[in-house]
Amino acid sequence: MVELPSGTVTLLFTDIEGSTRLLKRLRNEYGGLLADHHRLMRSALEQHGGREMDTQGEAFFAVFARAKDAVAAALTAQRAHATHGWPDGVEVRVRIGIHTAEPELVGDRYFGLGVHRASRLCSVGHGGQVLLSRSTAGLVDEDEIAGVALRDLGEHLLKDLERPERIYQVVTEGLAESFPPIRTLTEVARRSEVPTGTVSFVSTDMAGFRRLLRTGIDHYAAVMDEHDRLLRNVFEQNGHVVDVVGDSFLVAFARPKDAVQAAATAQQAIASGDWPAGEQPEVNIGIHTGEAVRTGSRYFSAALVRAVRICAAAQGGQVLLSKTTESLLDADDLGGLCLRDVGVRELLDFERPVRLYEVVPHTSHGRGNDTAAQ
């Protein structure tokens, strides 16, 4: 028996788009379609040195010792499916996800988050599309496979995986290259009027709120009215105001860049507000991105709580954001802003420390757009 590759390997997952629809349409003929699909897939895998690890219905899991062989097998499979004569004139469109990792090999099975990441990558694609993770794309780009180009689809959060993934589409002559947006949690949130799935939460808190309460009801009311007016005007442009409690806003955004820009704009609005007796308050802001479930008018999410805790870590009118949010920002998202690494902080109610970044004007000493471009 040939020994399975170990160490750094490339994992390939496939699935047929709309397989249930095909089954309903073809009925008894679907078995023949599935047999042809299996034959075409196995031929492509064997031709390029892939090892078939598992097959469930129409889905394949295979492993390769080299990333470029996995990509070559994927393209061979796509071409074979595109030119095959399928029953009743149907199209069989296969989505493929490829990720390079170091999974654990126990007996004849691979385990680890890398396996799950490859599977999730396959699930967010469209039929006829080949998607690569950042690690696989780097190896493919290094090998410079003739006739193959990579299209950067940006950073995305995949279901049940905390670390976002930069995803690339393989583009080559003779195969389709135009597809709808991939179906990640990030893309779903971007297209939702009220953010769901992957949400960027902004939490605000006014410093010295208790002192303000002691200045008298009239002065307090005037400050709070101006505070609420300014922040609501800013946040409602691209965000969804979840709650306002006392001096604190909680706002949900579909895109991290909108959350960061809104927080910076809010600070500018505070600085130019019409405050009674010229008493401008300091407003601290925290931002964090994560998965959120919305039921009725409420969100259920640890990400929401983390944003509140990050806000509590801010001082003196700071805007702080988490490493997760920072990793989802592209260089162009910051505009005239940059990010200053303020180190790792402990957050109340969370066991694991979080690296935080301060949003500052570009003229300040920060890491600038290079932070978001990494």
Describe this structure in words.
By secondary structure, this protein is of the alpha+beta class. It folds into 2 domains: 9-183, Nucleotide cyclase, GGDEF domain (Alpha-Beta Plaits), CATH 3.30.70; 197-373, Alpha-Beta Plaits. It is built from 12 helices and 17 strands. The chain has helices spanning 19-26, 30-47, 67-83, 113-123, 134-143, 185-190, 209-213, 217-238, 256-271, 302-313, 323-327, 369-373; strands at 9-16, 51-56, 59-64, 94-101, 104-106, 109-111, 130-132, 148-156, 165-172, 197-206, 240-245, 248-253, 283-295, 298-300, 319-322, 337-345, 354-361. The longest helix is centred in the middle third of the chain and has 22 residues, at 217-238. It is elongated, with a radius of gyration of 25 Å. The protein starts with 8 loop residues before the first strand and ends with a helix. 40% of the residues are buried.
On the 0-100 scale, what is the average pLDDT?
88
What percent strand?
Answer: 25-35%
Order of helices and strands: EHHEEHEEEHEHEEHEHHEEHEEHEHEEH
Low confidence ranges: 366-370
What is the CATH-assigned architecture of the largest domain?
2-Layer Sandwich
* Count of beta strands: 17
Instruction: Report the principal-axis shape.
Output: elongated
The structure class reads alpha+beta
Summarize the amount of helix as a percent range: 25-40%
Q: Write down the domain tally.
A: 2
CATH topology of the largest domain: Alpha-Beta Plaits
Superfamily (CATH H level) name of the largest domain: Nucleotide cyclase, GGDEF domain
Radius of gyration: 25 Å
